[in-house]
UniProtKB/TrEMBL annotation, chain A:
Keywords: Membrane, Transmembrane, Transmembrane helix. This is Cholesterol esterase. The chain crosses the membrane at residues 44-67. It comes from Streptomyces lucensis JCM 4490. The lineage of its organism: Bacteria, Bacillati, Actinomycetota, Actinomycetes, Kitasatosporales. The keyword Transmembrane helix applies. Residues 1-38 are annotated as: Disordered.
TrEMBL record, chain B:
InterPro entries: DUF6114 (IPR046096). This is Integral membrane protein. The chain crosses the membrane at residues 21-37, 49-71, 78-94, 100-118. Residues 128-149 are annotated as: Disordered. Keywords: Membrane, Transmembrane, Transmembrane helix. It comes from the Bacteria. It comes from Streptomyces lucensis JCM 4490. The keyword Transmembrane helix applies. Pfam families: DUF6114.
Length: 230, 149
């Protein structure tokens, strides 16, 4: 860019380095005639500083559990663990997840994964840990390890693996998935399903393909990259 | 580097790029795209959650559009970039913590670059060169130093 400008044309620039004034000095003849649009650092900072403050504020409020965030993830497998999950309004049924057309995760599955869909109306999770394998490194999200627990409403997960010590209240097993009522999600007709009023799962471990939650409150949020997953 | 002869297409692209906040628009559009990639929840679930679930898609889509508008309609870049930075910050709440932070950072950076961009600027001169030239100017013509400093 700096194509050896002569002294006369740039002699005035030290007077206003980086100032946003568009007033131009008589330099049209010099500088090789190359005049481009440029980012002025001070002008950009006018927006960058408040934006950074707001972003930091959002992160802090989320980490304190004051602000709920929404999640909608799918198409890539990720692991969720929690030492304890308590929920009211629980449903579970089998389903078939379709990946996006030509997804690199499809492999030899033809782009379809058999999953167990679990829906929980209100859930409380203790020591939540969520990790996504990004190839070589893991994105790790942990929350709720302090006194405050992670809470989620309308939590729906499509899992390929689910393990833990479960206890249910008022469970109905063998319903048709299209007649479920407890959590407000209806499955496909003619599929085995179960539902319960309350659920409690200790040492939960799920491998998920999709998660959505209306509102997730994540007190004590930590977002980091790590070599090992959950 | 800049004086190397260039082919027509590359030269034209360079000129086109010089007349708009290229990196700002590109980063904002990329940020929106990244957030959209991280959330591909099936439409049925989104409908179940309702308006909140829809916002998770609406915000990154608008980010993508605004990034493209900054590229193709740079005259309105102030409005686009201010809206873009607000949307980018909003995706923290609606869309997977802003596409797991990455899309949010891209969007905010892009918006700030677009906001700080001004057309028709002096060619960039490195600070050391500028200082050296100022010194040379002072030494050569002391009466001219009054206007510089």
């Amino acid at each position: 860019m700096a194509s050896s400008p002569d002294v006369s044309s740039t002699g005035n620039t030290p007077g206003n380095p980086g100032s946003g004034s568009p007033s131009e000095a008589p330099s049209s003849a010099g500088a090789g005639g190359e005049r481009r649009g440029r980012v002025r650092a001070r002008r950009a900072a006018v927006m960058a500083v408040p934006a950074t403050l707001v972003a930091a504020g959002l992160a802090v409020l989320t980490a304190q559990g004051a602000l709920g965030v929404q999640f909608a993830v799918s198409g890539m497998p990720f692991t969720v663990t929690a030492t304890e999950l308590r929920g009211t309004g629980f449903e579970q049924f089998g389903a078939l997840d379709n990946m996006a057309e030509g997804s690199p995760n499809a492999g030899d599955t033809g782009g379809q994964v058999l999953v167990v869909t679990s829906a929980i109306k209100h859930a409380t999770l203790d020591k939540l840990c969520q990790s996504v394998d990004l190839g070589g490194t893991n994105l790790l999200i942990t929350a709720g390890s302090g006194a405050d627990k992670v809470t989620a409403t309308d939590l729906t997960t499509d899992s390929t693996e689910l393990s833990g010590n479960a206890a249910f209240d008022n469970i109905e097993i063998g319903n048709d998935a299209s007649t479920l009522t407890k959590a407000g999600v209806k499955g496909p007709i003619g599929v085995f399903s179960q539902q319960a009023d309350t659920v409690r799962i200790g040492n939960l471990r799920q491998t998920n393909y999709a998660t959505t939650a209306g509102v997730f409150k994540l007190p004590g949020l930590k977002l980091r990259f790590s070599d090992s997953g959950c | 580097m800049p004086d190397r002869p260039r082919q027509g297409a590359r030269r034209a692209f360079r000129g086109w790029r010089a007349r708009r906040p290229f990196w700002g628009g590109l980063l904002l559009a990329l940020g929106g795209g990244e957030i959209l990639l991280t959330e591909k929840a099936s439409l049925k679930v989104v409908m179940h959650i309702g308006m909140q679930g829809l916002a998770g898609y609406l915000l990154p889509t608008l980010m993508l559009l605004l990034g493209l508008l900054i590229l193709f309609n740079p005259g309105q870049r102030l409005f686009y970039s201010i809206t873009g930075v607000l949307l980018s910050l909003g995706t923290w709440l609606t869309s997977n913590l802003g596409g797991f932070l990455l899309g949010l950072l891209l969007g905010v950076t892009g918006s700030c670059l677009a906001f700080g961009w001004l057309p028709d600027q002096e060619p960039r001169v490195s600070r050391r060169k500028r200082r050296r030239q100022a010194r040379a100017a002072r030494a050569a013509a002391p009466e001219g130093a009054g206007t510089t400093a």
